[in-house]
UniProtKB/TrEMBL annotation:
PROSITE patterns given in the database record: HTH_CROC1
CDD domains noted in UniProt: HTH_XRE
InterPro entries assigned to the protein according to its UniProt record, in alphabetical order: Cro/C1-type_HTH (IPR001387), Lambda_DNA-bd_dom_sf (IPR010982), P-loop_NTPase (IPR027417), TPR-4 (IPR011717), TPR-like_helical_dom_sf (IPR011990), TPR_rpt (IPR019734)
Family annotation (PANTHER family): HTH-TYPE TRANSCRIPTIONAL REGULATOR RV0890C-RELATED, REGULATOR-RELATED
Protein's UniProt name: Tetratricopeptide repeat protein
């Protein structure tokens, strides 16, 4: 019942169109208390419910019974797992939403009897505001999800989101794994319509270029509803309800200005509206400036507006003139940000100023509506202001220094993450200028969370660094990207990033840098199953490393080459390479241990299980608490050796310990391998249902990560376990699935293995 009350309170909050800070001021309840009431953590006093209803213009009496039942309900235990939330990507409802009653009524009624509405109008006229406000009002009518996608059709300096990519994002938002999303736009569109037909969802497609831009994104038959916004009319789309917006009527424009400015001031509101062109965005910017200048009258504001042309751009220019030099500089630099948003640490690096100064400047810009804060501590700029921003302080003339500073911030953060996730390969990454500050990344969970949050910004900065020929940060970001992809999957995307930054690595002319780049290219190609391409890259990297006397890196290159030998059933060749790596005597103990675990894997492939166990058993005893990934690798060898020696119970124990480590380090790729080892052992123990569940979980993780090579490699040992335990039908089914994946993705060496397995199972 608390959850039901919280849901009603959130709807009231959305109807008010006010932020937590504004509600705190208006109904005299602290924002922290309001947050607890809206989340269901606490039940508010009845007087607070009444105050919220009054702010939203609703009668509180129907909520009295819900409130009383919620008050009697004991607090929910914090250990109880929360239900999976329905996807809700809608931006926060705009404050002081004013006017548009007729258009809003058309939109709401269309949602009851049609599937698509298209809102068109000039930039800044309030298309997105109307669409978002309506979507919030329709929340209860579309329980299947509320999806939002900015198509960036008119974003200065940014390419639009093409339909193929838009469909990938939307399908992923519905929970489809990367491996389950087809490549072609027609196939993705068909899957998208099929998914929407099974649920009642609302989809907001913001800033479309034209009808063709969104044609493949529209729902088909079914109860879902789409809202499109564009600066162009969608006359080419049949059956779409159009809503064309003009600037606000004088009365509504004045009302919006007064509410946004915090009240009536002396002077001529009409003249201000004329100077703003009755354009909602311009009105909000002008009102924000007035609100934060208590001594000004409307005549003061009009005087500022008269100094320039009576155009919308002049409103922005007027606002910029009120900024002090530091605020103006920060505003201009934020227009260069290549990603969707930025945090205060990144903004400090971008500007090369202390963190406290950056935070203060960001708050100033948020207050005057020149920068948005969609989430606490995250900042973004409205599309219409971005072009103004890049020319505000001459930043666009030479963006390279600022982008280099931003890239160094991301490089510094990734180097801190590298220490936490135990990446042992030395990467010659150079940070030219230390950032003013870094967030606390001193523990594994925080470091990984930071990397996940910043990921899109990191990749966007990499692309811009390449474009600006900032070779040192481009190479560093390309190489350090392997940290995230190694954990999350996505070998194809990693390969693209490394290729993108390869010319920069070559231009630097440093052999260590080029060797590391070649090594990473080879490693990712191997991971994708492209063994013929991987081998020459790794050999080239090894030769460069050997020429520099870098025995640590050379040992890693030999380790990767040995893994390719194991993939191609040449375990003897793998042992030879690993003994060469051991003979190098790399000075880092952890590297020697990794080579020994690789040797153990090769010995298992050769059937020399006792020797494999002997090689790693001493290592496993010394590693706990020091290097979790190496400990996991030791457990993997010990488990497979135990299985080969007939000790299935020990094999299961080792595999389950490995799964626990994989989960504690949030490494789904390794977890999938350990789950397959667990499933194989359970098969041999006759615990078939448990084995099936573990293998299904492994395949789900790999499918979500988009790792077809590893999926096929996971299917083969499990299929063999089914065959070894007498279940020929199950064995044939899994061999056939491996064959299909291998054939589809050109994994030639696995095609042969899968066909041989099918022959044995038939």
């Amino acid at each position: 019942m608390r959850d039901e009350l919280a849901g009603w309170l959130r709807q009231l909050r959305d109807l008010t169109g006010r932020s937590l800070r504004e509600l705190e001021r208006d109904i005299h309840v602290s924002s922290s208390s309001l947050s607890r009431y809206f989340s269901g953590q606490a039940v508010p006093p009845w007087s607070t419910v009444v105050a919220l209803c009054r702010a939203a213009g609703r009668d509180p009496r129907p909520l009295r019974e819900v409130w009383e039942r919620a008050k009697e309900q004991p607090p929910t235990s914090t250990t109880t797992a929360a239900p999976t939330a329905v996807r809700n990507d809608l931006p926060h409802d705009i404050t002081a939403f004013t006017g548009r009653r007729a258009e809003l009524e058309v939109l709401l009624s269309t949602a009851r009897n049609a599937s698509v509405v298209a809102i068109d109008g000039m930039g800044g006229v309030g298309k997105s505001a109307l669409a978002i406000h309506a979507a919030h009002l329709l929340t209860a009518d579309f329980p299947g999800g509320r999806l939002y996608l900015d198509l960036h059709g008119f974003t200065p300096g940014r390419d639009r989101v093409e339909p193929t990519e838009a469909l990938r994002v939307l399908l992923a938002a519905l929970g489809l794994p990367p491996g389950g999303i087809p490549d072609g736009v027609a196939e993705r569109a068909a899957l998208w319509r099929s998914e929407l037909a099974a649920r009642r969802a609302i989809v907001l497609l913001d800033n479309a270029v034209d009808a063709e831009h969104v044609r493949d994104l529209l729902p088909g038959a079914g109860p879902s509803f789409a809202v499109i916004t564009s600066r162009r009319r969608m006359v080419e789309l049949d059956g779409v309800q159009p809503i064309s917006l003009d600037v606000l009527p004088a009365g509504e424009a004045a009302q919006l200005f007064v509410e946004s400015a915090g009240g009536i001031r002396a002077g001529d509101v009409g003249e201000v509206m004329r100077r703003c062109g009755n354009l909602p965005l311009a009105i909000r910017v002008a009102a924000a400036r007035l609100r934060h200048r208590p001594a000004w009258t409307l005549d003061t504001l009009v005087e500022r507006l008269r100094e320039g042309e009576p155009a919308v751009s002049e409103v922005f220019a007027m606002s910029l003139r009120q900024l002090d030099p530091a605020q103006r500089r920060m505003f201009g630099l934020l227009g260069l940000v290549p990603g969707e948003d930025i945090d205060a640490y990144g903004a400090a690096a971008l500007a090369g100023i202390p963190l406290t100064n950056a935070r203060s400047l960001l708050e100033d810009l948020v207050d005057v509506h020149l920068v948005q804060e969609p989430a606490a501590g995250r900042y973004r700029m409205h599309d219409l202001l971005r072009q103004t921003a890049v020319h505000a302080d001459g930043a666009a003339a030479d963006p390279a220094p600022a982008i280099a500073r931003l890239a160094d911030y991301y490089l510094s953060g990734l180097l801190a993450v590298k220490e936490q996730v135990e990446v042992l390969i030395p990467l010659p990454v150079t940070v030219s200028q230390q950032p003013p500050a870094l967030p606390g990344l001193g523990d594994y969970e925080t470091a990984v969370d930071w990397m996940d949050t910043e990921w899109l910004n990191l990749t966007a900065t990499l692309a811009l660094a390449v474009q600006l020929r900032l070779d040192t940060p481009a190479v560093g970001l390309g190489q350090l990207a392997t940290i995230s992809y190694g954990r999350r999957g996505g070998a194809a995307e990693l390969h693209r990033g490394l290729l993108l930054s390869l010319p920069a690595a070559e231009r630097l002319g440093e052999l260590r840098v080029l060797a590391a780049h070649r090594y990473l290219l080879g490693a990712v190609l191997m991971r994708a199953g492209r063994l013929g391409e991987a081998t020459p890259e790794l050999e080239a990297a090894r030769e460069l490393m050997a020429a520099q006397g870098d025995t640590v890196s050379e040992a890693f290159a030999l380790l990767q080459l040995a893994e390719i030998r194991m993939y191609t059933a040449d375990a003897g060749g793998a042992v030879e390479l690993l003994r060469r790596a051991t003979a190098l005597q790399p000075p880092v103990e952890a590297v020697r241990v990794r080579v020994c675990t690789g040797l153990g894997q090769a010995l298992v492939r050769l059937g020399q299980h006792a020797e494999a166990r002997e090689v790693v058993s001493e290592l496993a005893a010394s590693m706990p608490g020091q290097d979790r990934q190496t400990e996991r690798m030791c457990l993997e060898v010990l488990g497979r050796a135990a299985l080969g020696m007939g000790d299935v119970q020990a094999a299961l124990s080792f595999a389950e310990q490995a799964v626990a480590i994989d989960r504690s380090t949030r490494h789904p790729i390794f977890e999938a391998a350990s789950l397959t080892d667990t499933a194989v052992a359970l098969r041999h123990l006759g615990r078939l249902d448990e084995a099936t569940a573990r293998q299904d979980e492994a395949m789900r993780l790999l499918e979500q990560a988009g790792e077809p090579h590893r999926m096929a490699r996971s299917l083969l040992p499990y299929a063999q376990a089914c065959l070894d335990t007498g279940d020929r039908d199950a064995a044939a089914r899994h061999f056939r699935a491996a064959l299909e994946i291998a054939t589809t993705h050109g994994l030639t060496y696995l095609v042969t293995a899968a066909r041989a397995g099918l022959t044995r199972a038939s």
